[in-house]
Design a protein that fits this description.
Oligomer: homodimer
Structural class of chain A: alpha/beta
Strand content of chain A: 5-15%
Shape of chain A: elongated
Number of helices of chain A: 13
Radius of gyration of chain A: 26 Å
Number of strands of chain A: 12
Largest sheet of chain A: 6 strands, parallel
Distance between the termini of chain A: 63 Å
Order of helices and strands of chain A: HHHHEHEHEHEEHEHEHEHEHEHEE
Strand order of the largest sheet of chain A: 2-1-3-4-5-11
Largest interface: A-B, 49 and 49 residues
Chain lengths: 337, 337
DNA sequence: TTGTAGGCGTTATCAA
DNA sequence: TTGATAACGCCTACAA
């Protein structure tokens, strides 16, 4: 911490003006004459005064800051959502505290505690893949603490979720593969405990049903969809009978699977077609370019933040709503036979 | 903010134990009997108590948190550095507040203020491209506030910097292109106001000199090295006489330039070879794969954080030092003729 | 081992 | 328009 922390009392003494007036002046209160204000402000600058936000927040019981918890900031989707969040928050004069759970339940719980004990005015969160119990949210919600879930919804009553239509777009993605002539479509799923992945898997299944293709459970492969998982999944599908397409619940797994397959002489899309999910920048540049699903990321951040502000303002209102945004299938080379 | 905030006084009243004892118990002080501790802790849980960190930080003048300012969290290099920072900080029981300047000087200044007025114990920063004046750091440094610069150094006296050997690796990268037979090597530079880019440019020049290749200023193109810049730069080099290679100060610009050139019938590396900088994941996957420079990102985060902790502990010591890490040239297809 | 009392820096209320 | 005073929630000498 600083050696020499100047407080309003130091300014007060230096000028012979009461500290309450100094405080008012520094907050630009209309109840201080312009002359005194000028004197105080210039003295404050001269002395290198800097407000202690901790004290101010403690006193006012308002922090003007919100917390954001995402699984990983390096994912393009999340950093774009964060961009939207920061823009909206900034306009409203709020600070944003960015945290990553790294998909760990324990870290997520700890971050909730830290943010909440630092009295952020609300939290925007996309829950970790490990999270199957929602008790740690329930407690905060009971206390009336504004939490808003985005992308990965929370199925607790009273939760506000902002998500995309995972079911519908997964249906479309799978349908697209079927229309390309694929009949044996494998699916890379994330943890089924997350509604997000459940919805994507259900969309996939619904498309198969519509076209009279049997659903085979061994074609549905669950993992954490990390880079490493993609390689294991690729090996796995080579052991399955005549897989001719993959619909993956994210790009990361699809990309590393494709790389492994390419290195092993499989042609994409001729032998196996691919559709990913998230539209990571890499998907447009790789060879072949990856058909994927583009989510309204920036927009989601903006909307989530303004919904959160609604909740912060009227503690009571707008609970238990779900806002659904429309994603878009971006067709590239990896899926066109 | 919460409706019903339980404080240590509420617990104190509920149990008929003084609040100071409650405070000690909740901090697991050895000066409270186990029996009382148990009683207090279980009551605290029952009542849904949660410590108010603001009050605690204000009182103790210690926040156990550090701030990190990076240009963009979405850059792979920075998110890896942050991973290293978080790991080290976590082990030391510190919280990390992540912020992005978005390469804006104004935002950077504001973030410094916000973090500092929230009394973080220290700041790790990689300065924005717009930053040419260092006055806003000087003031904090004078006050003895621990700041540590990583990747993009601050050339103020008394600054602690942790960087890579940009000059040396840029020399090597350029030499590599020369050894591939390239003679007309253009260079994408960032703002020359940043030492980082100056060093890279100097390394490039030194290699040309060593091999008796004339330095032509019109071959050195300065920009912010964003995706959009890459396209403009690509157009530009097409107007220059017989450019046969590009050494770019980051991957983003190199990648979009390559894409533009490919779309316009230029073959890479046959017509124009490329070397980038940063080893973004995309560089390994794209076609052709991009030769680039891999920085010790995670390690840099770890080292920077422990150096910062040193400064936090002994306010006086270890100023004005520069720690240099060694990067590595990763040779891929974009540079091998 | 526990209680008392005061203060961290700010702001809100009341009075002047 | 300004000043005096108390309080936000916590922690820490010091006393008991």
């Amino acid at each position: 911490m600083r050696n020499n922390n100047i407080t309003i009392h130091d300014i007060s003494k230096a000028l012979g003006i009461d500290s309450s007036t100094v405080s008012r002046a520094l907050n630009n209160s209309p109840r201080v004459s312009q002359k005194t204000k000028d004197k105080i402000v210039s003295k404050a600058n001269e002395m290198g005064y800097q407000r202690n936000s901790l004290a101010s927040k403690l006193r006012t019981n308002k922090t003007h800051s919100i917390g954001v918890i995402v699984p990983r900031i390096s994912r393009h989707f999340f950093s774009s959502v964060i961009a939207g969040i920061e823009e909206t928050a900034f306009d409203a004069g709020y600070d944003v505290i960015i945290c990553q759970s790294l998909e760990s339940f324990e870290r997520e719980k700890k971050l909730m505690e830290t943010l909440s004990s630092n009295r952020v005015d609300g939290i925007l969160i996309s829950i970790s893949m490990e999270t199957t119990s929602y008790e740690h949210f329930k407690e905060y919600q009971k206390q009336g603490f504004p939490i808003l879930f985005f992308d990965r919804p929370c199925n607790l009553a009273d939760s506000t979720n902002i998500i995309i239509d995972d079911y519908k777009i997964s249906f479309e993605a799978t349908e697209h593969l079927i229309q390309q002539g694929c009949k044996n479509i494998a699916h890379f799923s994330g943890p089924a405990a997350l509604d997000l992945y459940k919805n994507r898997t259900n969309g996939y299944k619904a498309a198969l049903i519509k076209y009279g293709i049997p659903i085979r459970d061994e074609y549905i492969l669950e993992s954490h969809l990390m880079k490493e998982d993609g390689i294991a999944l690729a090996k796995k599908i080579l052991t399955l009978p005549k897989v001719d397409a993959v619909f993956s619940s994210n790009d990361a797994a699809a990309i590393s699977a494709m790389q492994y397959l390419k290195e092993n002489g499989i042609r994409i899309p001729q032998d196996i077609a691919f559709v990913g999910f998230s539209n990571e920048p890499i998907s447009a540049v790789m060879e072949p370019s990856l058909t994927t699903i583009k989510q309204p990321d920036f927009e989601m951040g903006k909307i989530a933040t303004s919904l959160l502000f609604d909740q912060i303002k009227n503690k009571s209102g707008h609970k238990n709503q779900t806002k659904i945004l429309e994603p878009e299938l971006v067709i590239r080379n990896s899926s066109q036979k």
